[in-house]
Amino acid sequence: MEALFDDIVGRYDRVNTILSFGLDRAWRRTAARALGSPLGTLVLDLGCGTGALGLQLAATHRVVGVDVSHGMLTAAVSKATNPGRRMRLVRGTALRLPFRSGAFQGAVSAFLLRNLDDLPGAFDELARVVAPAGSVALLDITGPRHPVLRRAFDAYFGAAAPALGALTGSPNAYRYLVRSLAQLPAPEGVCAMLREAGFSDTRARGLTGGVVTLFTATRGPSRRT
Ligand SMILES: C[S@@+](CC[C@H](N)C(=O)[O-])C[C@H]1O[C@@H](n2cnc3c(N)ncnc32)[C@H](O)[C@@H]1O
Fold this sequence. Notes:
Layout: H1 2-19, H2 23-34, E1 42-46, H3 54-57, E2 62-67, H4 70-80, E3 87-91, E4 104-110, H5 119-129, E5 130-141, H6 147-168, H7 171-180, H8 187-197, E6 199-207, E7 212-219
Parallel strand pairs: 1-2, 1-4, 2-3, 4-5
Antiparallel strand pairs: 5-7, 6-7
Helix pairs in contact: 1-4, 5-8, 6-7
The structure holds S-adenosylmethionine.
């Protein structure tokens, strides 16, 4: 996984923007706005990549970004030292976070969930590091439910991602992208996992016809141990 993201890092932001017709920025903005954590509090950007989501929040919150990929974090460093939008960067995995319990008042992630092979385990860790009453806003590609839109979505990703892979010289990475789209459970399944981990008020909001879904939840008073 680290090697895969290390391999595409130089082109990552640009290819994202091309693949999503520029919508990825608007989706992240929606996720940042949906986070209910009070201004100035400490929040986590899980799977921060090059820092695109965390840096939006850094204008209003103290942000720590965590990612497994050294390459992605290196790319985030130059942006994360910008005065007024500072973000601390830490290398680590969402499956075993290098932070104390209850350290954060909130957490966000964008396009990470489908890469995790143990989503319940990652949500347990998230519930551990987010303090009770803290909020989370997690964004990922889910694909539209409407059958016609779904066929168009599948055809688009089936053709566009491999073509970009060939053009950028990273065919494996973009083949993986298409495979990973099938890995995330349906939105109600993701909400059920969040509740099992100790979150309440779970909501799944489809954006752009359900191409991506924004999951929001509040950390309950107790969590699964
Ligand atoms: C598709 S990128 C998204 C990056 C960024 N959040 C964004 O909005 O552009 C997924 C990121 O998750 C990271 N990642 C994958 N598995 C991870 C894990 N187990 N723990 C932490 N980060 C992980 C990858 O290295 C990569 O940077």
